[in-house]
Amino acid sequence: MALGGFAIGALVINERATQTAVAMFRLHGFYAPWQWIVWWCQWHAATAFQPVWETCTRLVLIPMLMLAGIAVAIIIVARYLLATTSADLYGSARWASRRDLVKADLLAGWLAG
């Protein structure tokens, strides 16, 4: 659930950054939530677009860090809440003792004969 929530949150955050870039570029239409990253990869060196990249980075960086921190915290809390406290971490299998064999009535034929 934490990773799914992180993925949905990342899409929403990046959609907001893409729509901001669309407005700054004066474009129209629907673009994928990660489109601002594609544009940055193509035109990151263009000095005229630096305000767009700074704005998009500011819109994405802090919320994504907070979202990642929340996801990690949920995973850690869930791990400790769902953890069992049994001592047999590697299983509890063992060879049966004589007492176990008598208790299971597996020695009845041997003892009678």
Q: What is the secondary structure topology, with strand pairs?
A:
Layout: H1 2-25, H2 35-43, H3 50-82, H4 98-103, H5 108-112
Helix pairs in contact: 1-3
Explain this structure to me?
With 113 residues, the chain is mainly alpha-helical. The mean pLDDT is 88. The chain is 68% helix and 0% strand. It is built from five helices and no strands.
- The beta-strand count equals 0
Average pLDDT works out at: 88
* Biggest sheet layout: none
Order of helices and strands: HHHHH
Q: State the helicity in percent bands.
A: 55-70%
CA radius of gyration is 30 Å
Helical stretch tally: 5
Shape call: rod-shaped
User: How many structural domains in the coordinates?
Assistant: 1
- The percentage of residues in β strands lies in under 5%
Any low-confidence stretches, pLDDT <50, length ≥5? none
Structural class: mainly alpha
Intertermini distance: 61 Å
Concise synopsis of the structure shown:
By secondary structure, this protein is an all-alpha fold. It has five helices and no strands.
